[in-house]
Amino acid sequence: MLGNFTYCNPTKLYFGAGAVKGLGGELAKYGKNVVLIYGGGSVKKNGVYGEVTAILKESGKNVTEIAGVMPNPTLEKLYEGIKTARAAKADLLLAVGGGSVCDYAKALAVSVHCGEDPWEKYYVRFEEPSCEVVPVGCVLTMAGTGSEMNAGAVITNRETKMKVGHVFADERVMPRFSVLDPNYTLTLPRYQMAAGIYDIFNHICEQYFSGEDDNTSDYLSEGLMRSLLHSSRIANKDMQNYEARSNIMWTATWALNTLVSRGKSTDWMVHMLGQAVGAYTDATHGMTLAAVSLPYYRHIMPFGLKKFVRFAKNVWGVDPQGKTDTEIAEAGLAAMESWMKEMGLVMHIGELGATEDMIDGIAASTLVMDGGYKVLGRDEIVKILKESL
After folding, report:
1. Where are the alpha helices (DSSP H) in the chain?
2. Whole-angstrom Cα distance, residue 100 to residue 97?
3. Positive or negative CA dihedral for 378, 287, 253, 332?
4. What pLDDT digit, counting tens, does each position of 367-378 carry?
5. Beta-bridge partner residues of 155
6. Domains of the chain: residue spans and CATH
7. What local confidence, expressed as pLDDT, does residue 1 receive?
8. DSSP 8-state class, residue 322
9. Contact 81, 37 (CB under 8 A)
10. Which among 137, 180, 203, 384 would be 20 to 30 A from 257, CA to CA?
């Protein structure tokens, strides 16, 4: 195992049926002024909003609401939230929803007391907060992003057509606590469930497809992927299967709480491609990842062949007998493609609204990462996007 590292994860988790009962004890640790953040009307329809607001009332909190956080939170919405949180003198930001709501809360946490433009500071210069950070708590209603136990926050600038994620190094940005009740995910539409499942899978892939050393993180990643494949197939047939959905939720948390990235480089180019597509189409995040993944992995496979062979054998159970390494690796990606289609994932960015005349713009908006097996040039990005159409 190569590389030295520091690992710290201060987020406290309450997991399982009725986990929201832990919320009252956590609220007691913070001041009177709570800003409650959520998205559309789903948290009111499924009863989560009512449970949370009842606990807030019992705890004697002054509650200010920021509603309408969209699936790809925008810079305009962030600016709006800064004004609201400042006026409320927020002591705690409580996100109730999926990953986008949690991401938004973390972006807001570092921006409320920031004396500069947060977009420039955090998403252009990628600086760390030098101001007070407002504590964040999460009540999760969708499994996928892992935002409930990490310091990442993705914001979309519609004006520049840039969708950028900043994974903060400052542990103050991480949620102080998160409530994970799998029952809260059971009312999600199938499309959203599938998108979340692929987001989980790709988070693991982004950290897996790098390096050649014998790394504990890769063994952990393979176990998480196999668990996800098993549970996803059960959930796809029976969306109300609590055991499957609870395993999916727990896998999502471990897929991106930084554990499996320790001691190695990481790729993240699928996310860069998918986020650029999302900035142009406003499509669901997990589906943008699904639509660009296979063209990207087939492009880089020759440069990381050893890992793709391992992926085929250890994750997909490909029999290597009588096959060359290239044939084994290709069989693994073919098995992955079959599973993606079985799950009903979007396989082409054209299905998400991308058109050929957008390709150059999407390519220009794609940030290039250097942690994987191949650093992409502009022509390669264009080629992969065209194959994704």
Report:
1. 23-27, 42-45, 48-58, 75-88, 99-109, 118, 190-208, 216-237, 242-255, 269-281, 285-300, 305-314, 325-342, 359-365, 378-388
2. 8
3. negative
4. 999 999 999 999
5. 164
6. 12-185 (3.40.50.1970), 190-388 (1.20.1090.10)
7. 82
8. T
9. yes
10. 384
What does the block give as tokens for 226?
Answer: 């196999």
Can you tell me the distance from the alpha carbon of 270 to that of 373, in angstroms, rounded to the nearest whole number?
13
| pLDDT for the residue numbered 3 | 79
Residue holding tokens 């029999």? Answer: 319
Q: Give the Å distances, CA to CA, from 103 to 137, 165, 166, 289.
A: 11, 9, 10, 18
Contacts of 223 (CB under 8 A, 6+ apart): none
- What is the residue type of 139? V
Amino acid sitting at position 316: W
pLDDT, position 41? 84
Six-digit token pair at 214? Answer: 């014998």
C-alpha angle 157-160-164 in degrees, rounded to nearest 5: 45
Residues (pLDDT < 70) of the chain are: none
DSSP 91: S
Closest CA to 69 of 127, 1, 156, 150: 156
